[in-house]
Amino acid sequence: MERQDDGGEPVGSLTQHDSAEEPGSPPLACEPTGSLQQEEPAMMKRSDHYLPVPGEEKNLDGDFANANTGGNVSIPLKNLYADDGSPLHPRLGPYFSDGRRRVDYVLAYHIQKPSSIRRRSFGDNNFVRRLRRSLSMRSSRAPLQPKEDPEIAAQEHRTDYHEDDKRFRREEFEENLLEMGLELEKDEESKITGIGFLKIHAPWNVLCREAEFMKLKMPTKKVYEVKQGSNVVEKIRLFIHKVTAPLHPKVDANRPQSIKPLSHPFSREKQHLFDLSDRDKFFDSKTRSSIVYEVLKRTRCTRAKYSMGITSLLANGVYTSAYPLHDGDIEGVNAEPNDRKLLYEEWASYSVFYKYQPIGLIRKYFGEKVGLYFAWLGVYTQMLIPAAIVGVIVFLYGCATVDDNIPSMEICDPRNNITMCPLCDRACSYWKLVTACGTARASHLFDNPATVFFSIFMALWAVLFMEHWKRRQMRLNYIWDLTGFGEEEEDHNRAEYEFRVMQKTLRHEHSTPKGEKVKLTCTDRLPAYLTTVAMMCFMIAVTFAIAFGVILYRISIKAALHMSSYPAARSNIRATVKTTAAIINLIVIIILDEIYASIARWLTTLEVPKTDKSFEERLIFKTFILKFVNAFTPIVYLAFFRGRLVGRPGNYLYVVGSYRMEECAHAGCLMELCIQLCITMLGKQLIQNNLFEIGIPKLKKLLQRRKSELDSKQEEELNKTLHRHEKDHILCPFIGLSPEYMEMIIQFGMVTLFVASFPLAPLFALLNNIIEIRLDAKKFVMELRRPIAAKAKDIGIWYNLLRGLSKVAVIVNAFVIAFTSDFIPRLVYQYTYSPDGSMHGFVNHTLSYFNVSDFQLNTDPLEPMHLGYKVEICRYKDYREPPWSSTPYELSKEFWAILAARLAFVIVFQNVVMLMSDFVDWLIPDIPKDISLQMHKEKILMVELFMKEEQGKRLAARDNHNQDNYTSPSSANQSPPQPRSRPISHVNSSS
Questions:
Q1: How far apart are CA 592 and CA 631, in angstroms?
Q2: What are phi and psi of 39, to 5 degrees?
Q3: Is residue 18 scored above 80 in pLDDT?
Q4: How far is the C-alpha of 119 from the C-alpha of 631, rounded, in Å?
C-alpha cells in the first residue's frame, strides 16, 4: 500500500532533488555563470514530486520478510520537511534528501540549460506550475511526451541532438536500474554548474541478493580464538610485536586481536548464521558501493545498436563520471567520526611517519587492491632498513680505508712523475696522473672489497624480500578472508571491445552463421600489433639516440672546456662534464617518461583488449619496458660500454666524423656511474615522484581559485554548504595504482641492479619511501575520489616484474664488479704479477706505453710543451705491448689473463648467489605454519557449524512430524496444525 503526501500523490523512490524536471529538461531556476553558485533557500520543498518506483522497495523498518511483498514503501513528504519547508534531516553527508537512506554510488552527467528558458522560468509562475504538473503526472517508465509549450519544443530542437541521444540513453538505463531494485534520486540543481547527479541507494533486499550472487564472504556469529604458534619464530614475532607496540596506529582498539569471526559466503537462506542486529552496519560502505558497481556493470542499455553497461556509457559520455562517496569530512568542528577522518589522523599525517600503517582500516575503506599496494609498500620500506644500514656500513668502510688504499696513494704520490696521453684530439694536451688523485680517492669509497660482499647481500636481500612479501600476503589473505577467492569471477568486457565487435557484426551480418558468437581475432588485431611493435622499437631507438646525443655533448663540451681561456673552466673539466651530462639525462628521462606513458596507453587502446584486466596487464608491460629502457640506458652505457669502445692512441675510434669516443678516468668509470645513479635516483624521487605529486594538485587548486570569483572566506562558507556528492565531484578521479607501482618498481631496479656501484641507494630509497607512504596516503584520503573497492589476492603482474628484476640484478652486479670496477685486475695482480704479494706497483702495471711520434695526422696536441718539457713517451690505461716490442700495441697476455678471470668471476658469482637464493627460497615456506593451521581449523569449525544446523533441522522436522501424528482429525479440520519446531534463534545459539 502506498503512502501519500498531503496532496494525495504517491511518493516513490526516484526523486528529483530540488527539481521536478525530467533528465535533460530545462531548469526552472536561474544559475550564476560561475563554476560554483551560492546556495539558495529551499522554498519549494513541499511542491517537489517523487515518482513511484516499480519493483522491490527498501523497507525502512528493516524487515527482510516484508521486503518481498512487492509494495512500494515510500517516505511521505511530511516526514521529510517541516511546515516552513526546511528539511527535518538537514544532513550534508552521503544521504538522500530524506537524511536516512545512504547514497551508495553517484553518477554525474552534463545538463544543458538554455539561457532563454532560465529567463522565462523566473517570470512566468503559471507556466512553471503547469510544466511541473505535467511532468509530475508522467511515470518514469512512460515514453517521452511532446512538450506543452511549442516555444520550449522549438528551443529543444535547436539544442544538440547528440545530447538528446545521451539523455534518452540515461532514461532507459535509469529505468533498468529501477527494475533491478535500486533506488534513485536526482539532483540537477547542484552548485556545480552544468552537472547533474544521480544518487543511487541499494536497499537491504538488493544488497542481500547481490551479495549472494557475488559470493561475498561475510562474518558469521560464530567466533573462535586465534591461538598463536608455539614455535620459536612465532615467539620472536610476538616479542617484536610487543616491543613495537607504540609504533602501531590507534585503530581497532576495542576489538580483541585474538578473536576472529568465522566467515562464510552470504546466503539469504542462511541469514540466521550472520549477525544482523544492525543491518545498517552489516554491509559497510565499501561493500555497498562495490555491490552497486556490479549492478551498474551488469545493467544494460539497449537503445544503441549494441548493449551498453555503465563502462560503455561512461566511455560514450552519457555519464561523465561514476564514483562512490567518501564517508564524511576530515576537517572542521562539525566533522563526525568516520573511517576517513581516522585514516587522516592515523595514516595520512606526516606526524605519524614513524608508525606502522593501519592496513586493516585501509582495506576496509578502500578495498583489498589498494590495501595490498600499501601493505606491499610497507613491507618494501621495512626491508630497506637493513639494506640501508649495511650500505652505510660499506660506505663508511670505504671512507675508513681510503688512506690505506695503495693504488690511490700511488696515483696521489707526486714522486711518480707519470705523463698521460691526451684525452681528446688537438685541444687536449698531456697531463700528469697526479691530477686524478681526487677521483681515485673518491672511487675507493664505492669500489672496495666490501662492495662484492654488499652485492651478494643485496641479491639475497631481494630473495628474502620476495619471500617475506609472499608470507605477508598469505597472512593478509587469511585475515581478510580471501583464501577461497579466485579469479574465476566474471570480468566484464570493455566498452571499446563491445563497440568493435558490434562494428564487425554489422559488416559480416549476412556471412556469419546464426548462433555463432562474433569476437575479435588475431587477424582483426594484426594491424594494431604491427603498429605496437613498430612504435615500441621506434621509441627504444629514440631513447638510444638521445643517450648517444648526450655522449656527443660530453665529448664536445670536454674539448671546448680544454680550449677555454678561463682558468676556472679548465680546472674542473671532469666534474663539470659529468654533472651537467647527468642532469641533462635526468631531464630527458622525466620528459620521456610522460610521453612514453601516453604512447603506451594509446598503443594498448589500439589493440582493443577484451577485459579491463587484460588492458591493465598489457599497458603495464609496455609502460615498464619503455620506462625501464629510458631510465637505465645512460647507466648501462656508463657501466658496460664507456671506455671499452675507445681504441688506443694513434688508432682511436671515431663516430659521426671527428668525434672520438670518450675514455674512463684512470680510476675507472665506476665514479661516473655512481654520479649518474645518484642524480637520476634523487632527481626522479624528488622531482617526478614527490614534487609533481605535491606541486601539480596545489597548482590546479591555485588555478581553480583564481578562476573563481570567490575569496577564501566565501569559498570556505560555500564548501560548508556543499553536499557530499558535490564535494567528491570536485576531487580528482582515481586513475588506478599503476603509476604508484611503476615508480616503486623503477626504484627497486635502481636499488638492486647497480647497487655494486652505489651502496647508498637503499638509504635514499628508504628516506624517499617514508615520505612516499604519507604522501600517497594524503592523496588517497584528501585529494582523490574514493576508488571502487576491488578484490585481489595478490599484486598481480608486479610480482613477476619484481622477481625478474631480482634475477637480472644478480647478473648485472656480477658484470659491474667484474668489468666496471678494478676488483678483478687488483686480485689478478696481487696473486699473479706482484713481486711481494702486495698492491705496490699496481698502477704502473695497468698503464701501457705510447710513442708520441705514432700519432695520426692532425691528432697530436696543439700545445705539446704544456707541461714545460717535450714529451716522447706517454702512458694510457690498457694492457698492450710497448712500442719497442715485436708486436707493438697488440693486446698483451695480461689482458687475456684478466679477461679470463673476469668471466670466471661472473660465472662463479652468478651460480653461487643463485644457489644461495634458491636455498633461501626453499628454506622459507610460502604459507606461515600458524596460518595453515588456522585455515585447517576454520574448515573444521565450518563443518561443525553446518552439522549442528542440519541436526537442528532434523529435530525440528521430527517434532513437526510427531505433532502431526498426535493431532485429532476434528482439530485438523478446524485449524491447521502448529508445529513445535525450535525457533531459529534457538538453533543458532546451539550452533
A1: 9
A2: -75, 130
A3: no
A4: 58
Half-sphere exposure of 324 (CA within 13 A, CB side): 25
71 phi and psi angles, rounded to 5 deg: -75, 155
Write the CB contacts of 287 (distance below 8 Å, at least 6 apart in sequence).
211, 216, 789
Q: What span, in angstroms and rounded, lies between the C-alpha atoms of 718 and 872? A: 84
Query: For cell 549476412, what's the residue?
Result: 510
Nearest to 912 by CA among 345, 452, 268: 452
Query: Measuring CA to CA, which residue among 95, 81, 32 is closest to residue 725?
Result: 95
Q: What are phi and psi of 215, to 5 degrees?
A: 55, 45
Whether residue 537 is predicted with pLDDT greater than 90 in this model: the reply is: yes
For the chain, give the number of residues. Answer: 991
Distance between CA atoms of 393 and 401, rounded to whole angstroms?
Answer: 12
State the Cα–Cα distance between residues 51 and 48, nearest whole angstrom.
Answer: 10
Distance of alpha carbon 10 from alpha carbon 93, whole angstroms: 26
Greatest CA separation for the chain: 136
Residue (of 891, 747, 750, 754) closest to 815 by Cα position: 754
List, in sequence order, every residue forming a beta bridge with 732; answer none if it has no partner.
Answer: 784
Contacts within 8 Å (CB) and 24+ apart, 247-252 = 247/354, 247/355, 247/356, 248/355, 248/356, 249/346, 249/347, 249/352, 249/355, 249/356, 249/357, 249/358, 249/361, 250/346, 251/342, 251/346, 251/358, 251/360, 251/361, 252/358, 252/360, 252/361
Q: How far is 149 from 134, CA to CA, in rounded Å?
A: 11
3-class DSSP assignment, residue 659: strand
Single out the residue of 399, 388, 575, 455 nearest to residue 823, CA to CA: 455
**What is the Cα–Cα distance from 933 to 142, expressed in whole angstroms?**
59
Residue with cell 571502487: 788
SS3 921: helix
The Cβ of residue 352 has, within 10 Å, a number of other Cβ atoms equal to 18
Dist CA 742 CA 797 (whole Å): 11
Yes or no: say if 596 and 626 are a contact pair by the CB < 8 Å rule.
yes
Instruction: Please state, for a pLDDT cut of 70, what percent of the chain lies above it.
Output: 75
Q: How far apart are CA 112 and CA 156, in angstroms?
A: 10
CA distance 926 to 923: 10
The residue assigned the cell 620459536 is 232
Percent above pLDDT 90 for the chain: 14
Residues 86-104, mean pLDDT to the nearest whole number: 70
Would you say residue 560 has pLDDT above 50?
yes
Q: How far is CA 579 from CA 584, 660, 674, in A?
A: 9, 20, 11
Phi and psi at residue 321, to the nearest 5° = -160, 160
DSSP string of 35-47?
A: SB-PPPP---GGG
With CA atoms as reference, report the closest residue to 475 among 226, 714, 847: 226
| pLDDT value of position 116 | 39
Distance, CA of 35 to CA of 710 (rounded, Å):
10
Q: Would you list the DSSP string of 611-627?
A: BHHHHHHHHHHHHHHHH
- For 728-786, write each residue's pLDDT tens digit: 888 888 888 888 899 899 999 989 988 888 889 999 999 999 988 998 898 899 888 99
Rounded-to-5 percentages of helix, strand, coil across the chain: 55, 10, 35
pLDDT tens string 694-706: 777 777 777 776 7
Task: Output 963 or 43, whichever has higher pLDDT.
Answer: 963
Instruction: Output the nine-digit C-alpha cell for 462.
Output: 631481494
Q: Select, from the ranges 299-313, 325-339, 511-525, 595-609, the one with the highest average predicted confidence (pLDDT).
A: 595-609
Supply 117's cell numbers. Answer: 528558458
Distance CA 861, CA 201 (A): 83
- Look up residue 968 and give its three cell numbers: 485429532
